[in-house]
Amino acid sequence: MFTGIVQGTAKLVSIDEKPNFRTHVVELPDHMLDGLETGASVAHNGCCLTVTEINGNHVSFDLMKETLRITNLGDLKVGIG
């Protein structure tokens, strides 16, 4: 269970639809990248997700179909943040 404190907001910069899941990429400010690594848990729009990739300030999360179905993450659009 995620027990951290929300530290800020970030803009959704990319959505990549795949056959069985979707990848969201958010752009984090530098101060939120300190200590962040692949596999870490991060709150994304109130849902605890696992970081799947870090590329500079862009951080990726894979969202399974069930997550998209039962949360509002499936309704998000690029640019929201």
UniProtKB/TrEMBL annotation:
It comes from the Bacteria. Lumazine-binding repeats lie at residues 1-81. Pathway: Cofactor biosynthesis; riboflavin biosynthesis; riboflavin from 2-hydroxy-3-oxobutyl phosphate and 5-amino-6-(D-ribitylamino)uracil: step 2/2. SUPFAM superfamilies: Riboflavin synthase domain-like. It catalyses: 2 6,7-dimethyl-8-(1-D-ribityl)lumazine + H(+) = 5-amino-6-(D-ribitylamino)uracil + riboflavin. One of its GO terms (biological process) is riboflavin biosynthetic process. Keywords: Repeat, Riboflavin biosynthesis, Transferase. Its EC number is 2.5.1.9. It is an enzyme of class 2 (transferase). One of its GO terms (molecular function) is riboflavin synthase activity. Residues 1-81 form the Lumazine-binding domain. GO terms for cellular component: cytosol. Catalyzes the dismutation of two molecules of 6,7-dimethyl-8-ribityllumazine, resulting in the formation of riboflavin and 5-amino-6-(D-ribitylamino)uracil. This is Riboflavin synthase. The gene is ribC_2.
